[in-house]
Protein backbone atom coordinates (compact mmCIF):
# COMPACT_ATOMS: atom_id res chain seq x y z
CA UNK A 1 0.00 0.00 0.00
CA UNK A 2 2.89 2.32 0.68
CA UNK A 3 3.81 2.34 -2.99
CA UNK A 4 0.33 3.14 -4.31
CA UNK A 5 -0.68 6.62 -5.48
CA UNK A 6 2.74 7.85 -4.50
CA UNK A 7 2.16 11.43 -5.59
CA UNK A 8 -0.78 11.85 -3.23
CA UNK A 9 -1.22 11.28 0.44
CA UNK A 10 -2.21 7.74 1.17
CA UNK A 11 -5.86 6.74 1.28
CA UNK A 12 -5.04 3.62 3.20
CA UNK A 13 -6.27 3.79 6.79
CA UNK A 14 -3.34 1.79 8.14
CA UNK A 15 -0.83 4.07 6.50
CA UNK A 16 -2.68 7.26 7.43
CA UNK A 17 -3.08 6.13 10.98
CA UNK A 18 0.60 5.29 11.35
CA UNK A 19 1.69 8.48 9.63
CA UNK A 20 -0.59 10.69 11.74
CA UNK A 21 0.16 9.17 15.10
CA UNK A 22 3.73 8.06 14.81
CA UNK A 23 6.76 10.27 15.00
CA UNK A 24 10.13 8.49 14.85
CA UNK A 25 11.52 11.13 17.22
CA UNK A 26 9.30 9.84 20.04
CA UNK A 27 10.62 6.29 19.70
CA UNK A 28 14.38 6.67 19.44
CA UNK A 29 14.89 3.48 21.44
CA UNK A 30 13.32 1.45 18.65
CA UNK A 31 16.26 2.16 16.35
CA UNK A 32 19.79 0.82 16.44
CA UNK A 33 21.13 4.37 16.26
CA UNK A 34 18.59 6.68 17.85
CA UNK A 35 21.01 9.59 17.44
CA UNK A 36 20.97 9.16 13.65
CA UNK A 37 17.20 9.40 13.67
CA UNK A 38 17.36 12.50 15.81
CA UNK A 39 19.94 14.07 13.54
CA UNK A 40 17.84 13.28 10.48
CA UNK A 41 14.73 14.80 12.04
CA UNK A 42 16.53 17.97 13.10
CA UNK A 43 17.65 18.41 9.54
CA UNK A 44 14.18 17.60 8.30
CA UNK A 45 12.43 20.01 10.67
CA UNK A 46 14.62 22.86 9.48
CA UNK A 47 13.21 22.26 6.03
CA UNK A 48 16.56 21.13 4.60
CA UNK A 49 15.14 18.31 2.60
CA UNK A 50 13.92 17.59 -0.87
CA UNK A 51 10.30 18.67 -1.07
CA UNK A 52 7.53 16.47 -2.36
CA UNK A 53 6.51 16.61 -6.00
CA UNK A 54 10.07 17.27 -7.22
CA UNK A 55 12.32 14.92 -9.11
CA UNK A 56 14.76 12.85 -7.11
CA UNK A 57 18.19 12.20 -8.60
CA UNK A 58 20.50 9.64 -7.03
CA UNK A 59 23.45 11.16 -8.89
CA UNK A 60 22.91 14.47 -7.08
CA UNK A 61 25.11 14.24 -3.95
CA UNK A 62 22.58 16.11 -1.79
CA UNK A 63 19.67 13.95 -2.87
CA UNK A 64 21.78 10.86 -2.39
CA UNK A 65 22.88 11.84 1.10
CA UNK A 66 19.27 12.28 2.11
CA UNK A 67 18.17 9.00 0.51
CA UNK A 68 20.99 7.05 2.15
CA UNK A 69 20.19 8.56 5.56
CA UNK A 70 16.58 7.52 5.21
CA UNK A 71 17.63 4.07 4.06
CA UNK A 72 19.90 3.73 7.09
CA UNK A 73 17.01 4.62 9.38
CA UNK A 74 14.87 1.96 7.70
CA UNK A 75 17.64 -0.59 8.19
CA UNK A 76 18.05 0.47 11.81
CA UNK A 77 14.45 -0.29 12.78
CA UNK A 78 14.64 -3.01 15.41
CA UNK A 79 11.29 -4.55 14.51
CA UNK A 80 9.10 -4.89 11.47
CA UNK A 81 6.43 -2.85 13.22
CA UNK A 82 8.83 0.07 13.68
CA UNK A 83 9.91 -0.30 10.07
CA UNK A 84 6.33 -0.13 8.84
CA UNK A 85 5.47 2.91 10.95
CA UNK A 86 8.66 4.71 10.00
CA UNK A 87 7.99 3.96 6.34
CA UNK A 88 4.42 5.22 6.68
CA UNK A 89 5.71 8.40 8.29
CA UNK A 90 8.25 8.88 5.49
CA UNK A 91 5.67 7.99 2.84
CA UNK A 92 3.61 10.98 3.94
CA UNK A 93 6.37 13.46 4.74
CA UNK A 94 9.38 13.13 2.46
CA UNK A 95 9.76 13.43 -1.28
CA UNK A 96 7.80 10.55 -2.78
CA UNK A 97 10.41 9.41 -5.31
CA UNK A 98 13.17 9.56 -2.74
CA UNK A 99 10.93 7.55 -0.43
CA UNK A 100 10.27 4.95 -3.14
CA UNK A 101 13.99 4.54 -3.67
CA UNK A 102 15.06 4.27 -0.03
CA UNK A 103 12.10 2.11 0.90
CA UNK A 104 12.64 -0.27 -2.03
CA UNK A 105 16.32 -0.74 -1.27
CA UNK A 106 15.42 -1.36 2.39
CA UNK A 107 12.77 -3.93 1.44
CA UNK A 108 15.31 -5.74 -0.69
CA UNK A 109 17.90 -5.80 2.06
CA UNK A 110 16.16 -6.09 5.43
CA UNK A 111 16.17 -9.62 6.81
CA UNK A 112 12.50 -9.48 7.78
CA UNK A 113 11.28 -8.44 4.34
CA UNK A 114 13.01 -11.09 2.24
CA UNK A 115 10.70 -12.65 -0.30
CA UNK A 116 8.19 -9.78 -0.32
CA UNK A 117 6.82 -8.89 -3.72
CA UNK A 118 7.53 -5.37 -4.91
CA UNK A 119 5.35 -4.24 -7.82
CA UNK A 120 7.23 -3.43 -11.04
CA UNK A 121 8.78 0.03 -11.17
CA UNK A 122 6.82 0.81 -14.35
CA UNK A 123 3.67 0.73 -12.25
CA UNK A 124 5.14 2.48 -9.22
CA UNK A 125 6.46 5.44 -11.20
CA UNK A 126 4.99 5.18 -14.72
CA UNK A 127 6.35 8.57 -15.78
CA UNK A 128 9.83 7.10 -16.22
CA UNK A 129 8.60 4.31 -18.47
CA UNK A 130 5.86 5.91 -20.47
CA UNK A 131 5.99 8.35 -23.37
CA UNK A 132 4.56 11.85 -22.90
CA UNK A 133 1.64 11.37 -25.29
CA UNK A 134 0.46 8.38 -23.29
CA UNK A 135 0.74 10.25 -19.98
CA UNK A 136 -1.28 13.12 -21.49
CA UNK A 137 -3.95 10.74 -22.75
CA UNK A 138 -4.06 9.13 -19.32
CA UNK A 139 -4.66 12.50 -17.61
CA UNK A 140 -7.36 13.24 -20.08
CA UNK A 141 -9.05 9.89 -19.44
CA UNK A 142 -8.97 10.55 -15.73
CA UNK A 143 -10.46 14.03 -16.18
CA UNK A 144 -13.22 12.66 -18.36
CA UNK A 145 -13.63 9.73 -16.03
CA UNK A 146 -13.57 6.87 -18.46
CA UNK A 147 -11.57 3.67 -18.46
CA UNK A 148 -9.11 3.50 -21.29
CA UNK A 149 -6.14 1.62 -22.73
CA UNK A 150 -3.62 3.72 -24.62
CA UNK A 151 -1.22 2.37 -27.25
CA UNK A 152 2.39 3.23 -26.62
CA UNK A 153 5.07 3.12 -29.32
CA UNK A 154 8.83 3.05 -29.26
CA UNK A 155 10.38 6.48 -29.74
CA UNK A 156 11.65 7.88 -33.04
CA UNK A 157 11.06 6.84 -36.63
CA UNK A 158 12.45 4.21 -38.99
CA UNK A 159 14.67 6.90 -40.52
CA UNK A 160 16.79 6.50 -37.42
CA UNK A 161 18.41 3.03 -37.52
CA UNK A 162 18.82 3.11 -33.74
CA UNK A 163 15.06 3.04 -33.55
CA UNK A 164 15.08 -0.48 -35.03
CA UNK A 165 16.49 -1.77 -31.75
CA UNK A 166 14.55 0.56 -29.44
CA UNK A 167 12.34 -2.39 -28.47
CA UNK A 168 15.26 -3.63 -26.38
CA UNK A 169 16.49 -0.44 -24.70
CA UNK A 170 12.94 0.80 -24.13
CA UNK A 171 11.58 -2.53 -22.93
CA UNK A 172 9.85 -1.79 -19.63
CA UNK A 173 11.00 -5.10 -18.17
CA UNK A 174 14.61 -4.40 -19.08
CA UNK A 175 14.36 -0.96 -17.46
CA UNK A 176 12.92 -2.61 -14.38
CA UNK A 177 15.80 -5.12 -14.31
CA UNK A 178 18.38 -2.37 -14.57
CA UNK A 179 16.77 -0.43 -11.74
CA UNK A 180 16.67 -3.53 -9.56
CA UNK A 181 20.25 -4.50 -10.30
CA UNK A 182 21.36 -1.16 -8.93
CA UNK A 183 18.92 -1.43 -6.02
CA UNK A 184 20.37 -4.83 -5.06
CA UNK A 185 23.92 -3.53 -5.45
CA UNK A 186 23.91 0.21 -4.69
CA UNK A 187 27.23 1.88 -5.40
CA UNK A 188 26.96 3.62 -2.02
CA UNK A 189 26.57 0.30 -0.16
CA UNK A 190 28.74 -0.04 2.95
CA UNK A 191 29.73 -3.23 4.74
CA UNK A 192 28.29 -1.78 7.96
CA UNK A 193 24.78 -2.50 6.68
CA UNK A 194 25.30 -6.03 7.87
CA UNK A 195 25.60 -7.86 4.59
CA UNK A 196 28.58 -8.06 2.37
CA UNK A 197 27.69 -8.07 -1.28
CA UNK A 198 29.89 -10.87 -2.49
CA UNK A 199 31.81 -10.09 -5.70
CA UNK A 200 29.86 -6.88 -6.23
CA UNK A 201 32.62 -5.21 -8.25
CA UNK A 202 32.94 -8.16 -10.59
CA UNK A 203 29.18 -8.34 -10.90
CA UNK A 204 29.07 -4.68 -11.88
CA UNK A 205 31.37 -5.55 -14.77
CA UNK A 206 29.51 -8.71 -15.68
CA UNK A 207 25.90 -7.50 -15.49
CA UNK A 208 26.75 -4.60 -17.80
CA UNK A 209 28.92 -6.78 -20.02
CA UNK A 210 25.88 -9.01 -20.49
CA UNK A 211 23.65 -6.02 -21.34
CA UNK A 212 26.19 -4.91 -23.92
CA UNK A 213 26.53 -8.39 -25.44
CA UNK A 214 22.75 -8.79 -25.49
CA UNK A 215 22.39 -5.49 -27.32
CA UNK A 216 25.03 -6.57 -29.86
CA UNK A 217 22.88 -9.62 -30.62
CA UNK A 218 19.84 -7.38 -31.19
CA UNK A 219 21.85 -5.15 -33.51
CA UNK A 220 23.01 -8.10 -35.60
CA UNK A 221 19.43 -9.35 -35.69
CA UNK A 222 18.50 -6.05 -37.33
CA UNK A 223 21.49 -5.82 -39.68
CA UNK A 224 23.13 -3.07 -37.69
CA UNK A 225 26.89 -2.85 -37.15
CA UNK A 226 28.30 -3.49 -33.71
CA UNK A 227 28.14 -0.87 -30.97
CA UNK A 228 30.61 1.94 -31.50
CA UNK A 229 32.02 2.92 -28.10
CA UNK A 230 31.84 6.52 -26.91
CA UNK A 231 34.98 8.48 -26.39
CA UNK A 232 35.67 11.76 -24.64
CA UNK A 233 37.30 13.33 -27.69
CA UNK A 234 34.88 11.96 -30.22
CA UNK A 235 31.49 13.37 -30.98
CA UNK A 236 28.45 11.57 -29.62
CA UNK A 237 27.25 10.59 -33.04
CA UNK A 238 23.68 9.76 -32.17
CA UNK A 239 21.24 12.04 -30.51
CA UNK A 240 18.26 10.91 -28.56
CA UNK A 241 14.79 12.26 -28.01
CA UNK A 242 13.37 10.51 -24.95
CA UNK A 243 9.72 11.59 -25.38
CA UNK A 244 9.25 11.10 -21.67
CA UNK A 245 8.44 13.70 -19.10
CA UNK A 246 8.87 14.45 -15.43
CA UNK A 247 5.76 15.25 -13.47
CA UNK A 248 6.87 18.74 -12.67
CA UNK A 249 10.16 19.59 -14.34
CA UNK A 250 9.05 19.06 -17.92
CA UNK A 251 10.42 16.89 -20.70
CA UNK A 252 13.58 14.85 -20.34
CA UNK A 253 16.19 16.80 -22.34
CA UNK A 254 16.68 16.07 -26.01
CA UNK A 255 20.18 15.59 -27.42
CA UNK A 256 20.76 16.33 -31.12
CA UNK A 257 23.19 14.28 -33.24
CA UNK A 258 26.93 15.03 -33.26
CA UNK A 259 27.23 16.69 -29.85
CA UNK A 260 30.59 16.91 -28.10
CA UNK A 261 31.16 16.32 -24.42
CA UNK A 262 31.35 19.51 -22.39
CA UNK A 263 32.90 20.43 -19.09
CA UNK A 264 30.42 20.54 -16.25
CA UNK A 265 30.79 22.89 -13.27
CA UNK A 266 31.98 20.03 -11.07
CA UNK A 267 33.83 17.75 -13.51
CA UNK A 268 35.66 18.40 -16.76
CA UNK A 269 36.23 16.30 -19.86
CA UNK A 270 39.89 16.32 -18.91
CA UNK A 271 39.07 14.87 -15.48
CA UNK A 272 37.33 12.00 -17.25
CA UNK A 273 40.37 11.38 -19.42
CA UNK A 274 42.62 11.42 -16.37
CA UNK A 275 40.49 8.79 -14.65
CA UNK A 276 40.57 6.65 -17.74
CA UNK A 277 44.35 6.96 -18.10
CA UNK A 278 44.99 6.13 -14.46
CA UNK A 279 42.84 3.03 -14.74
CA UNK A 280 44.46 2.02 -18.03
CA UNK A 281 47.86 2.51 -16.44
CA UNK A 282 46.88 0.29 -13.51
CA UNK A 283 45.82 -2.41 -15.95
CA UNK A 284 49.07 -2.14 -17.89
CA UNK A 285 51.12 -2.26 -14.68
CA UNK A 286 49.04 -5.05 -13.16
CA UNK A 287 48.42 -3.26 -9.88
CA UNK A 288 46.53 -0.35 -8.41
CA UNK A 289 47.79 2.06 -5.79
CA UNK A 290 45.59 2.25 -2.70
CA UNK A 291 44.92 5.25 -0.45
CA UNK A 292 48.16 4.66 1.47
CA UNK A 293 50.39 4.24 -1.54
CA UNK A 294 50.48 0.44 -1.32
CA UNK A 295 50.41 -1.61 -4.49
CA UNK A 296 47.53 -4.04 -4.81
CA UNK A 297 47.90 -6.57 -7.57
CA UNK A 298 45.08 -6.89 -10.08
CA UNK A 299 47.08 -9.27 -12.19
CA UNK A 300 44.97 -12.32 -11.37
CA UNK A 301 41.45 -13.71 -11.20
CA UNK A 302 40.48 -11.34 -8.38
CA UNK A 303 41.69 -8.21 -10.16
CA UNK A 304 38.31 -7.74 -11.80
CA UNK A 305 36.67 -7.26 -8.39
CA UNK A 306 39.00 -4.39 -7.46
CA UNK A 307 38.72 -2.90 -10.92
CA UNK A 308 34.91 -3.14 -10.99
CA UNK A 309 34.63 -1.24 -7.72
CA UNK A 310 37.07 1.42 -8.90
CA UNK A 311 35.40 1.96 -12.23
CA UNK A 312 31.84 2.28 -10.98
CA UNK A 313 32.98 3.78 -8.43
CA UNK A 314 31.52 2.48 -5.20
CA UNK A 315 31.87 3.08 -1.48
CA UNK A 316 34.22 0.05 -1.44
CA UNK A 317 36.53 1.52 -4.09
CA UNK A 318 40.20 1.80 -3.35
CA UNK A 319 41.64 5.28 -3.67
CA UNK A 320 38.57 6.96 -5.14
CA UNK A 321 40.37 10.26 -4.76
CA UNK A 322 42.84 9.16 -7.43
CA UNK A 323 40.81 6.84 -9.67
CA UNK A 324 37.68 8.96 -9.49
CA UNK A 325 34.28 7.70 -10.49
CA UNK A 326 34.48 6.94 -14.17
CA UNK A 327 31.16 5.21 -14.71
CA UNK A 328 28.93 7.32 -12.49
CA UNK A 329 30.35 10.59 -13.76
CA UNK A 330 30.17 9.36 -17.35
CA UNK A 331 26.43 8.89 -16.84
CA UNK A 332 26.20 12.49 -15.63
CA UNK A 333 28.41 13.84 -18.45
CA UNK A 334 26.14 12.26 -21.02
CA UNK A 335 22.99 13.28 -19.20
CA UNK A 336 23.97 16.96 -18.97
CA UNK A 337 25.42 17.36 -22.45
CA UNK A 338 22.44 19.38 -23.72
CA UNK A 339 22.72 21.99 -20.98
CA UNK A 340 26.17 21.59 -19.40
CA UNK A 341 26.20 24.89 -17.55
CA UNK A 342 22.60 24.73 -16.49
CA UNK A 343 21.77 27.87 -18.49
CA UNK A 344 18.38 26.58 -19.51
CA UNK A 345 17.47 24.91 -16.26
CA UNK A 346 16.92 21.59 -18.00
CA UNK A 347 16.27 18.65 -15.70
CA UNK A 348 18.64 15.65 -15.66
CA UNK A 349 18.62 13.41 -18.72
CA UNK A 350 17.59 9.76 -18.89
CA UNK A 351 21.15 8.68 -18.09
CA UNK A 352 20.77 9.88 -14.50
CA UNK A 353 18.06 7.40 -13.57
CA UNK A 354 18.57 3.65 -13.64
CA UNK A 355 14.93 3.27 -14.69
CA UNK A 356 15.42 5.29 -17.86
CA UNK A 357 19.12 4.98 -18.78
CA UNK A 358 18.92 2.10 -21.25
CA UNK A 359 16.37 4.01 -23.35
CA UNK A 360 19.22 6.09 -24.73
CA UNK A 361 21.19 4.10 -27.35
CA UNK A 362 24.29 5.90 -26.09
CA UNK A 363 23.89 4.02 -22.82
CA UNK A 364 25.18 0.98 -24.68
CA UNK A 365 27.95 3.01 -26.33
CA UNK A 366 29.02 4.25 -22.95
CA UNK A 367 29.00 0.75 -21.55
CA UNK A 368 30.90 -0.59 -24.53
CA UNK A 369 33.56 1.97 -23.69
CA UNK A 370 33.61 0.72 -20.09
CA UNK A 371 33.49 -2.87 -21.26
CA UNK A 372 36.55 -2.37 -23.47
CA UNK A 373 38.53 -1.20 -20.45
CA UNK A 374 37.49 -4.32 -18.55
CA UNK A 375 38.41 -6.36 -21.61
CA UNK A 376 41.91 -4.92 -21.72
CA UNK A 377 42.34 -6.11 -18.13
CA UNK A 378 41.00 -9.59 -18.93
CA UNK A 379 43.18 -9.76 -22.04
CA UNK A 380 46.25 -9.01 -19.94
CA UNK A 381 45.73 -12.35 -18.15
CA UNK A 382 46.89 -15.65 -19.69
CA UNK A 383 44.43 -17.89 -21.56
CA UNK A 384 43.03 -20.88 -19.68
CA UNK A 385 45.12 -24.01 -19.94
CA UNK A 386 43.71 -27.28 -21.14
CA UNK A 387 43.77 -28.55 -17.53
CA UNK A 388 41.82 -25.56 -16.24
CA UNK A 389 39.09 -26.17 -18.80
CA UNK A 390 38.92 -29.95 -18.82
CA UNK A 391 36.71 -32.23 -16.76
CA UNK A 392 38.51 -35.56 -17.15
CA UNK A 393 36.17 -38.48 -17.72
CA UNK A 394 33.24 -36.29 -18.76
CA UNK A 395 32.35 -35.47 -22.34
CA UNK A 396 29.45 -33.57 -23.86
CA UNK A 397 28.46 -35.65 -26.87
CA UNK A 398 25.47 -33.86 -28.28
CA UNK A 399 23.27 -30.82 -27.73
CA UNK A 400 19.82 -30.46 -29.27
CA UNK A 401 17.53 -27.52 -28.65
CA UNK A 402 13.89 -28.52 -29.04
CA UNK A 403 10.41 -27.07 -28.64
CA UNK A 404 11.17 -23.61 -30.04
CA UNK A 405 9.48 -24.53 -33.33
CA UNK A 406 8.62 -27.67 -35.28
CA UNK A 407 12.29 -28.10 -36.12
CA UNK A 408 15.15 -29.03 -33.84
CA UNK A 409 17.60 -26.21 -33.20
CA UNK A 410 15.24 -23.60 -34.60
CA UNK A 411 13.90 -21.00 -32.21
CA UNK A 412 11.10 -18.51 -32.80
CA UNK A 413 10.57 -15.01 -31.46
CA UNK A 414 7.60 -12.65 -31.79
CA UNK A 415 6.14 -9.47 -30.37
CA UNK A 416 3.28 -9.65 -27.91
CA UNK A 417 0.98 -6.99 -26.48
CA UNK A 418 1.29 -6.17 -22.83
CA UNK A 419 -0.72 -3.81 -20.65
CA UNK A 420 0.37 -2.06 -17.51
CA UNK A 421 -1.39 0.18 -15.04
CA UNK A 422 -0.84 3.95 -15.17
CA UNK A 423 -2.84 4.75 -12.05
CA UNK A 424 0.21 5.84 -10.05
CA UNK A 425 1.01 8.54 -12.61
CA UNK A 426 -2.34 10.21 -11.99
CA UNK A 427 -3.71 12.47 -9.30
CA UNK A 428 -6.23 11.23 -6.81
CA UNK A 429 -8.55 12.88 -4.39
CA UNK A 430 -11.34 12.01 -2.03
CA UNK A 431 -14.60 11.86 -3.94
CA UNK A 432 -12.93 11.57 -7.33
CA UNK A 433 -13.79 8.26 -8.84
CA UNK A 434 -11.06 5.85 -9.81
CA UNK A 435 -10.76 4.95 -13.48
CA UNK A 436 -8.77 2.15 -15.06
CA UNK A 437 -6.06 3.59 -17.28
CA UNK A 438 -3.56 1.28 -18.94
CA UNK A 439 -0.77 1.59 -21.47
CA UNK A 440 -0.41 -1.11 -24.11
CA UNK A 441 3.11 -1.86 -25.35
CA UNK A 442 4.81 -4.38 -27.60
CA UNK A 443 7.29 -6.71 -25.95
CA UNK A 444 9.68 -9.19 -27.47
CA UNK A 445 9.02 -12.80 -26.51
CA UNK A 446 9.76 -16.29 -27.81
CA UNK A 447 8.45 -19.83 -27.72
CA UNK A 448 9.88 -21.63 -24.71
CA UNK A 449 12.38 -24.35 -25.56
CA UNK A 450 14.41 -27.14 -23.98
CA UNK A 451 18.09 -28.04 -24.06
CA UNK A 452 18.77 -31.76 -24.41
CA UNK A 453 22.36 -32.45 -23.48
CA UNK A 454 23.95 -35.88 -23.90
CA UNK A 455 26.82 -36.40 -21.51
CA UNK A 456 29.10 -39.41 -21.13
CA UNK A 457 30.65 -39.85 -17.70
CA UNK A 458 33.27 -42.27 -16.38
CA UNK A 459 31.71 -42.33 -12.90
CA UNK A 460 29.20 -40.52 -10.69
CA UNK A 461 29.88 -36.79 -10.54
CA UNK A 462 28.12 -33.54 -9.86
CA UNK A 463 28.51 -31.25 -12.85
CA UNK A 464 28.03 -27.53 -13.33
CA UNK A 465 26.36 -26.91 -16.68
CA UNK A 466 27.22 -23.56 -18.28
CA UNK A 467 25.23 -22.48 -21.32
CA UNK A 468 26.06 -19.49 -23.52
CA UNK A 469 24.92 -18.20 -26.88
CA UNK A 470 26.53 -15.84 -29.40
CA UNK A 471 26.10 -14.87 -33.04
CA UNK A 472 28.16 -16.91 -35.48
CA UNK A 473 28.53 -14.27 -38.16
CA UNK A 474 29.59 -10.66 -38.02
CA UNK A 475 27.75 -7.72 -39.55
CA UNK A 476 29.98 -8.20 -42.61
CA UNK A 477 28.98 -11.83 -42.96
CA UNK A 478 32.35 -13.21 -41.87
CA UNK A 479 32.49 -16.09 -39.41
CA UNK A 480 33.62 -15.02 -35.96
CA UNK A 481 36.70 -16.75 -34.60
CA UNK A 482 36.20 -18.20 -31.13
CA UNK A 483 38.26 -15.38 -29.75
CA UNK A 484 35.97 -12.78 -31.36
CA UNK A 485 32.81 -14.66 -30.53
CA UNK A 486 33.67 -15.15 -26.87
CA UNK A 487 33.16 -11.49 -25.96
CA UNK A 488 29.69 -11.61 -27.56
CA UNK A 489 28.71 -14.68 -25.57
CA UNK A 490 25.55 -14.16 -23.56
CA UNK A 491 25.12 -16.40 -20.56
CA UNK A 492 21.84 -18.30 -20.95
CA UNK A 493 21.91 -20.57 -17.93
CA UNK A 494 24.07 -22.10 -15.22
CA UNK A 495 22.97 -24.98 -13.01
CA UNK A 496 24.25 -28.06 -11.24
CA UNK A 497 23.22 -31.61 -12.05
CA UNK A 498 24.03 -35.16 -11.06
CA UNK A 499 25.90 -37.25 -13.59
CA UNK A 500 25.79 -41.02 -13.42
CA UNK A 501 28.42 -43.39 -14.68
CA UNK A 502 27.68 -44.00 -18.35
CA UNK A 503 25.34 -42.12 -20.62
CA UNK A 504 23.23 -39.20 -19.30
CA UNK A 505 20.65 -37.01 -20.95
CA UNK A 506 20.21 -33.67 -19.21
CA UNK A 507 17.05 -31.78 -20.09
CA UNK A 508 16.66 -28.18 -19.05
CA UNK A 509 13.84 -25.78 -19.86
CA UNK A 510 14.54 -22.26 -21.07
CA UNK A 511 12.14 -20.96 -18.41
CA UNK A 512 14.40 -22.34 -15.68
CA UNK A 513 17.24 -20.04 -16.74
CA UNK A 514 19.43 -18.63 -13.97
CA UNK A 515 19.78 -15.44 -16.02
CA UNK A 516 16.12 -14.51 -16.16
CA UNK A 517 13.04 -13.98 -14.03
CA UNK A 518 9.33 -13.94 -14.92
CA UNK A 519 7.35 -10.67 -14.88
CA UNK A 520 6.92 -9.03 -11.50
CA UNK A 521 3.35 -9.18 -10.27
CA UNK A 522 1.39 -6.04 -11.10
CA UNK A 523 -0.51 -4.04 -8.48
CA UNK A 524 -3.72 -5.67 -9.70
CA UNK A 525 -2.38 -9.21 -9.51
CA UNK A 526 -0.86 -8.56 -6.09
CA UNK A 527 -4.13 -7.19 -4.74
CA UNK A 528 -6.00 -10.11 -6.21
CA UNK A 529 -3.56 -12.74 -4.92
CA UNK A 530 -3.45 -11.25 -1.44
CA UNK A 531 -7.25 -11.23 -1.19
CA UNK A 532 -7.52 -14.74 -2.58
CA UNK A 533 -4.72 -15.91 -0.31
CA UNK A 534 -2.83 -17.36 -3.27
CA UNK A 535 0.24 -15.14 -3.17
CA UNK A 536 3.27 -17.37 -3.31
CA UNK A 537 5.96 -16.76 -0.78
CA UNK A 538 9.55 -17.63 -1.51
CA UNK A 539 12.25 -16.22 0.70
CA UNK A 540 14.64 -16.21 -2.25
CA UNK A 541 12.37 -14.40 -4.67
CA UNK A 542 14.38 -11.83 -6.64
CA UNK A 543 13.36 -8.70 -8.52
CA UNK A 544 16.66 -8.39 -10.33
CA UNK A 545 16.99 -10.55 -13.43
CA UNK A 546 16.86 -10.15 -17.17
CA UNK A 547 13.23 -10.58 -18.27
CA UNK A 548 12.51 -14.19 -19.21
CA UNK A 549 10.88 -12.92 -22.42
CA UNK A 550 14.19 -11.41 -23.52
CA UNK A 551 16.25 -14.56 -23.12
CA UNK A 552 16.50 -14.79 -26.91
CA UNK A 553 17.47 -11.96 -29.24
CA UNK A 554 14.94 -11.16 -31.93
CA UNK A 555 16.70 -12.91 -34.81
CA UNK A 556 15.24 -12.17 -38.22
CA UNK A 557 12.48 -13.40 -40.48
CA UNK A 558 15.01 -15.31 -42.62
CA UNK A 559 16.80 -16.52 -39.50
CA UNK A 560 20.07 -15.58 -37.81
CA UNK A 561 22.58 -18.26 -36.90
CA UNK A 562 23.85 -18.47 -33.36
CA UNK A 563 26.15 -20.85 -31.53
CA UNK A 564 24.79 -22.44 -28.40
CA UNK A 565 27.71 -23.45 -26.23
CA UNK A 566 27.39 -26.00 -23.45
CA UNK A 567 30.15 -26.84 -21.00
CA UNK A 568 30.07 -29.14 -17.99
CA UNK A 569 32.61 -28.55 -15.22
CA UNK A 570 33.33 -30.25 -11.92
CA UNK A 571 31.17 -29.01 -9.05
CA UNK A 572 33.71 -30.26 -6.49
CA UNK A 573 36.30 -27.91 -7.95
CA UNK A 574 33.93 -25.02 -8.65
CA UNK A 575 32.11 -24.67 -5.37
CA UNK A 576 33.12 -21.55 -3.51
CA UNK A 577 32.30 -23.03 -0.11
CA UNK A 578 31.29 -26.39 1.21
CA UNK A 579 27.67 -27.04 0.29
CA UNK A 580 25.42 -29.54 -1.40
CA UNK A 581 24.75 -28.70 -5.01
CA UNK A 582 20.96 -28.55 -4.60
CA UNK A 583 21.14 -26.05 -1.73
CA UNK A 584 21.81 -23.13 -4.01
CA UNK A 585 18.94 -20.85 -4.99
CA UNK A 586 19.83 -20.17 -8.57
CA UNK A 587 16.97 -17.74 -9.28
CA UNK A 588 18.85 -15.04 -11.14
CA UNK A 589 22.39 -15.92 -10.15
CA UNK A 590 23.87 -15.26 -13.58
CA UNK A 591 23.55 -11.46 -13.79
CA UNK A 592 22.33 -10.66 -10.30
CA UNK A 593 24.54 -12.82 -8.12
CA UNK A 594 23.39 -13.47 -4.59
CA UNK A 595 21.82 -10.86 -2.39
CA UNK A 596 23.31 -11.78 0.96
CA UNK A 597 25.02 -15.16 0.66
CA UNK A 598 28.42 -16.09 -0.66
CA UNK A 599 28.45 -16.44 -4.44
CA UNK A 600 28.42 -20.23 -4.85
CA UNK A 601 30.56 -20.55 -7.98
CA UNK A 602 34.26 -19.78 -7.64
CA UNK A 603 34.89 -19.51 -11.37
CA UNK A 604 35.26 -15.99 -12.76
CA UNK A 605 31.98 -14.65 -14.13
CA UNK A 606 31.79 -15.41 -17.82
CA UNK A 607 34.07 -18.44 -17.52
CA UNK A 608 35.42 -19.82 -19.87
CA UNK A 609 34.94 -16.84 -22.19
CA UNK A 610 36.40 -14.17 -19.94
CA UNK A 611 39.94 -15.00 -21.06
CA UNK A 612 41.61 -14.83 -24.47
CA UNK A 613 41.41 -17.85 -26.72
CA UNK A 614 44.77 -17.85 -28.46
CA UNK A 615 44.72 -21.45 -29.60
CA UNK A 616 41.46 -23.20 -30.46
CA UNK A 617 43.06 -26.63 -29.92
CA UNK A 618 43.98 -25.79 -26.34
CA UNK A 619 40.49 -24.40 -25.77
CA UNK A 620 38.56 -27.37 -27.12
CA UNK A 621 38.09 -29.97 -24.41
CA UNK A 622 35.70 -32.94 -24.35
CA UNK A 623 33.46 -31.38 -21.75
CA UNK A 624 32.25 -28.63 -24.10
CA UNK A 625 30.13 -28.54 -27.22
CA UNK A 626 29.07 -25.96 -29.80
CA UNK A 627 25.71 -26.36 -31.52
CA UNK A 628 24.41 -24.10 -34.24
CA UNK A 629 20.84 -22.83 -33.80
CA UNK A 630 18.73 -20.52 -35.94
CA UNK A 631 16.62 -17.76 -34.43
CA UNK A 632 13.68 -16.77 -36.62
CA UNK A 633 11.33 -13.91 -36.01
CA UNK A 634 7.63 -14.31 -36.67
CA UNK A 635 6.38 -10.99 -38.01
CA UNK A 636 3.24 -9.49 -36.47
CA UNK A 637 0.13 -11.31 -37.43
CU1 LIG B 1 23.84 0.12 -14.83
UniProtKB/TrEMBL annotation:
Ranges where the Tyrosinase copper-binding domain occurs: 360-371
Superkingdom, taxonomy of origin: Eukaryota
Gene Ontology molecular functions: oxidoreductase activity
PROSITE patterns xref list: HEMOCYANIN_1, HEMOCYANIN_2, TYROSINASE_2
A Pfam entry, by short name: Hemocyanin_N
Family membership noted in the UniProt record: Belongs to the tyrosinase family. Hemocyanin subfamily.
Protein name: Hc subunit 1
Species for this entry: Skogsbergia lerneri
Amino acid sequence: HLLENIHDHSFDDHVRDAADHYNPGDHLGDYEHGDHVQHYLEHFNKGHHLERDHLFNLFDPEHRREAVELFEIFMDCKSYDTFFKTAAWAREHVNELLFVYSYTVALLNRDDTQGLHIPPMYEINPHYFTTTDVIQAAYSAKMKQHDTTIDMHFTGTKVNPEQWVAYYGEDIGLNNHHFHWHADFPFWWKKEYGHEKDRKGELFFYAHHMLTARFEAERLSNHLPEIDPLHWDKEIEQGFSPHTTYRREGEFPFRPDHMHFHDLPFVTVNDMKNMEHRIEAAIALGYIVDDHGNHISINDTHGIEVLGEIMESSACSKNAHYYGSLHNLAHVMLSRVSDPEGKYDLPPGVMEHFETATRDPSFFRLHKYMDNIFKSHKDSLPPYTHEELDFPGVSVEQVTVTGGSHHDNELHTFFEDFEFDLNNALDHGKGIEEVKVHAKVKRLNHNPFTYNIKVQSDKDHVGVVRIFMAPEYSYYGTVFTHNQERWLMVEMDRFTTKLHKGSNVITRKSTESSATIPDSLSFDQLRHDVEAGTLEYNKYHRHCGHPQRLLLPKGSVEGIKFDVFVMVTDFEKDKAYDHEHHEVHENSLSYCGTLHEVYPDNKPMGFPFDRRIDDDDVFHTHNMHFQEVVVKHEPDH
